[in-house]
Amino acid sequence: MLESLVTSKTRVKLLLKFFSHQNSGYLRSLAKDFDESTNSVRVELNRLTEAGLLVSEEEGKTKVYKANSQHPFFTEIKNMVSKFLGLDDLMERIVKRMGDVEKAYIIGDYANGIDSGTVEMILIGKDLDTQYLEFIKNKTFEKVNRKVQVSILEEDPGTISGILVFGA
Known about the structure:
The protein has 168 residues and is an alpha+beta fold. The chain has helices at 2-5, 9-20, 27-34, 38-50, 74-85, 88-97, 108-111, 130-144, and strands spanning 24-26, 54-59, 62-67, 100-107, 118-126, 147-153, 163-166. The protein folds into 2 domains: 2-80, Winged helix-like DNA-binding domain superfamily/Winged helix DNA-binding domain (Arc Repressor Mutant, subunit A), CATH 1.10.10.10; 86-166, 2-Layer Sandwich (Alpha-Beta Plaits), CATH 3.30.70. It is built from 8 helices and 7 strands; from the N terminus they run ααβααββααβαβαββ. This is PaaX-like protein.
């Protein structure tokens, strides 16, 4: 759906990253997260910045990018991304009801901008309510017609390749 409107896979990944939640990122970490070359990510960051969809600021010697919430289409793009992911509702429920969720990642096909019908997530936290998780996974399938696969880790290994949708 989204990939038919936006032909660059890297651009889709960036839109998902920045418009799914109030994420920010810098060139090298984005390239690593997306398993893309820094050049292809840089080209798309420049295009999105020139279009006014992203803004950047210097943090020391690092340029950090984030969605431009002042852009006239910010809300529309955010809504499109949320609908594409079909997870905005799910994420809010999980974070509120699961316990002490520190971070939540979307990995796999959805993190790469591909609607395969299965959403893979990793939740990081201790003593999370796995019974509620089973309930919400079934409700999500009924609501958005997508399977949800969730892995739970107690600590972030620092090697997760995906989109951070909750936490810092």
